[in-house]
Write a structure and sequence with these properties.
Shape: flat
Largest sheet: 3 strands, antiparallel
Order of helices and strands: HHEEEH
Strand order of the largest sheet: 1-2-3
Number of strands: 3
C-alpha cells in the first residue's frame, strides 16, 4: 500500500526507481516513453465510474493514424 506522504509515488521517478506509483505516475511514464519513441501521446484524467472521489488517469497514443487508450495502472493489479 502506498503511503499518502510518499511524493515519489506521484512521479516518473517513483515508477522508475522505487517501482511504486499511482495511476497518474504510470500514465506519465508511458507518455514519456511514447514521446521518446516518436508517438503523439497524452495523459487523460477523469473520474472513475462516475464517482467524483475516484479520479483515474491513463494515456492515449496515436499509432498509424489511430488513437489507442492504454490503461497501464489497472493491469498491475490483476492476478
Amino acid at each position: 500500500m502506498l503511503n499518502e506522504l510518499d511524493e515519489d509515488a506521484y512521479s516518473i521517478y517513483g515508477i522508475a526507481m522505487n517501482k511504486k506509483g499511482v495511476c497518474a505516475s504510470y500514465a506519465d511514464t508511458f507518455v514519456y516513453m511514447d514521446r521518446k519513441a516518436g508517438l503523439d501521446a497524452l495523459m487523460v484524467s477523469r473520474t472513475a465510474n462516475g464517482d467524483p472521489k475516484a479520479d483515474h488517469a491513463w494515456n492515449a497514443a496515436k499509432l498509424n493514424g489511430n488513437i489507442h487508450r492504454n490503461i497501464i495502472a489497472n493491469s498491475f493489479y490483476l492476478n
